[in-house]
Amino acid sequence: MSRYGMALVGSGSAVPITSVSNQQLSERVDTNDEWIRTRTGIGARRICNPEEPLTALATKAAEAALEHAGWKAEDLDLILMATSSPDDLFGTAPRVQGALGARQAVAFDLTAACSGFLFALITAGQYLRSGAMRRALVIGADQLSRWVDWDDRTTCVLFGDAAAAVAVEACPAEEDGLLGFRMHSDGSRNGCLTLAQSETHHSVLSGVSAQRGGFEPLRMNGQEVYKFAVREVPAVLKELLESTGISADQLDWLLLHQANQRILDAVADRFQIPHERVLSNLSNYGNTSAATIPLMLDEAVKDGRVKSGDLIASSGFGAGLSWGGALLRWSGPA
User: Fold this and answer.
1) For position 33, which CATH number holds?
2) 305-316 burial by CB neighbour count: b if 16+ within 10 A, else e?
3) Dist CA 40 CA 15 (whole Å)
4) Orientation of helix 222-244 relative to helix 261-270, angle to 10°
5) Of 192, 50, 175, which is closest to residue 114 (Cα–Cα)?
6) Which uninterrupted H or E stretch holds 135?
7) What is the pLDDT tens value at each position of the chain, 334 positions in all?
8) Does a structural domain hold residue 105?
9) Structural domain count of the chain
10) Which residues lie closer than 8 Å to 248 by C-beta, 6 or more apart?
């Protein structure tokens, strides 16, 4: 058993300036505010403008988390960035590392779509628990607006852009803030939610052709993804609670990936968790992919809902298909 645990000690977030309401979207596609709200719970979403690349958002979120934790950038050993929409396919985390001046930190990206932040947080925990590293910054950031088909009302109403980060550090094992976790993937259902490469090719030499880089717009089978989420998320949380000996009524908060309010409500009802203990900011931001969980956590910490010592059940789910759960204890300041 490890001598170390992982403490969650700081958070930060950053969102684009531009907010697009449901009413504004109805000027482009055949939809309306009531249709979107009743099916998803979303009222608006933030969209990056040309002066707000994902790297800049992620850096702002990282700086805020460092300040909240009371750390300097030089204190970091690891920057792990969960994203499926990087500014650079070779990695955006190193850009953030450079912008922060975190000279001692190794930085790399992790891609797991809407499960990305939770998977990255669990991954960071293993470095800290092993004693190999002392302090890490876990960032969830996505700019899916660049890959959405804005004429497809089934997807363009759902997604927004944001970045958020959590500062974690090694602590004594008895103070571990990662009480348990589970991670799953099912690639046989990958086609339900994709951001696939385009299949265009061009001739480079006589008899030789190569694929031209690029991606198709984001595509989703919403009905199948919904059925997947309402089936698998309660199952993974039940497995997690049973394995740790924790009951649902001991939880202070339920913090799920912010994809659809109906999913959040269905999971809460499955465990008889009052809706006022379900954290949700879907109405203001929509689905920000890897950013949803840390964005919501930062908001709830800063407004005083989540307090030091609170026990949180969290689950991420989405493309891959992938899903997972974690029991977390917040130990940072307000």
Assistant:
1) 3.40.47.10
2) bbeeebebbbbb
3) 20
4) 30
5) 192
6) strand 135-143
7) 678 999 999 999 999 999 999 999 999 999 999 999 999 999 999 999 999 999 999 999 999 999 999 999 999 999 999 999 999 999 999 999 999 999 999 999 999 999 999 999 999 999 999 999 999 999 999 999 999 999 999 999 999 999 999 999 999 999 999 999 999 999 999 988 898 888 888 888 988 989 888 888 889 888 999 899 999 999 999 999 999 999 999 999 999 999 999 999 999 999 999 999 999 999 999 999 999 999 999 999 999 999 999 999 999 999 999 999 999 999 988 7
8) yes
9) 2
10) 241, 271, 272, 273, 313
Residues whose CB is less than 8 angstroms from the CB of residue 55 and which lie 6 or more positions away in sequence, other chains included: 87, 92, 95, 96, 99
Instruction: Cite the active site residues.
Output: 114, 257, 287
Q: Is 290:140 a contact under the CB 8 Å cutoff?
A: yes
Residues 136 and 10 in one domain: yes
What whole-number distance in Å separates Cα of residue 212 and Cα of residue 201? 5
Same domain membership, residue 294 and residue 155: no
Domain containing residue 228: 178-189+217-329
Does 89 lie in the same domain as 46? yes
The sign of the CA dihedral 52, 112, 90, 295 is positive
Compute the residue count for the chain. 334
Pair (166, 241) in one structural domain: no
Angle of helix 116-129 relative to helix 292-302, nearest 10 degrees, comes to 80
Please tell me whether residues 104 and 184 are part of one structural domain.
Answer: no
Picking from 147, 175, 203, the residue at the C-terminal end of a domain is: 175
* Centroid of chain to Cα 162: 9
